[in-house]
Design brief:
The protein has 407 residues and is mainly α. It contains 16 helices and no strands. It starts with 25 loop residues before the first helix and ends with a helix. This is Major Facilitator Superfamily protein.
Length: 407
Amino acid sequence: MTTATQDISAAQTVYHGPRRPFGLQPLEWALGSCHLIARAGGLVRPMLVLYLTQEQAMTPTAAGAVLAAIAVGDVGSQLLGGWLGDRIGRRRTMVLGFLGASIALVALGSADTMPLIWVAAIGYGLTSELFRPAASAAVADLERGQRVRAYGLQYWAANLGYSIAAVSAGVLAGRGYDTLFWINAAAMLIAALTVVTAVPETRSTAVRSRRGLVPALLGDRLMIAMALIYIAFFTLQAQTFATLPLLMAAHGHGPGTFGIVLALNGVAIVLLQPAAIALLSRRDRATVLAVSILLVGTGGGLAALAHSGTGFAAAVLTWTLGQIGIAVHFGAVFADLAPPDLRSGYMGVASSTWSLGAVFGPPAGTALLEHADATWLAVTALIAGLALFVAQRRAAASLRAREAVRS
């Protein structure tokens, strides 16, 4: 398989920095802080559909279309962020993304006509995730031994931030939706300031990409295969979250029970992720990923077959263990796939697999539940998990070979 290697030594393409607590560099703590700030301050998204329908008097269909436009923008944002990270640098791309998102949020909260709302929503979608591939590329620029812990810190910080935002958004919305937009915009500014003051540029001076990303990707069959596997995986994962409230409601469980069951996901990730990194970081990456995929498929199947609150909780915990396993090695595996001069672009493609799954998963799962039944949803989730497990296992040898080349 084409590996798009460069005549540049590994030492010339690795960022070195001082070690600090828990063996992490200041750069890694700063990037983790950016994720925490951005996600904890992300108050608008959880309440956006209510804002659009209640404050802007939009129909549910129109509000859903705006949300879909933002989701599609997320995909473009990550691909653009990856491309920019290789062209203008990781640091500048992150700052640009945070500042752009802050401006777009103010515009979205101030817009009072449909055309302005659409323009602001698209702008928000195209900037909100611009920082992610650049931050992932900054971690990929580190020594290989540092990457798993650094990616784990980012994932842990993001989930802690999501949990904070989910609770805070509901409370603060009572003071007016304007408050959510201003706090979210301020959080983006704080994240940008954190990058400016604490994140150095990690892109090696020995590497300045002039190659096209698309031709390199088209020549890299392993990267294409992995991207397809994870688009399918994140589609599977997204549909489990989308159908869970419908499945629970069908068995008489109200919003309170649903909230408790769903909260188990975030709590388990925050509590177990650090231990998982220590336990799984030295395990075979392809094996951990394959088993984790199977756990998510199994959890999705169990949720579709569950009746009691305990059954739904067990299903959520099962797929949460899979999510945690994926998070341990996902970023590091894609970092190994990337050639030094296209790290940010490759990480943009990797990040976009999650966004594409978020676009495809909810309509696929809800349509299957509506037009078939929960049993078929369970069967589909289990088969999908098993098929992706096999696909990941088949890619294992090629991943190990690429890992050896990048070492």
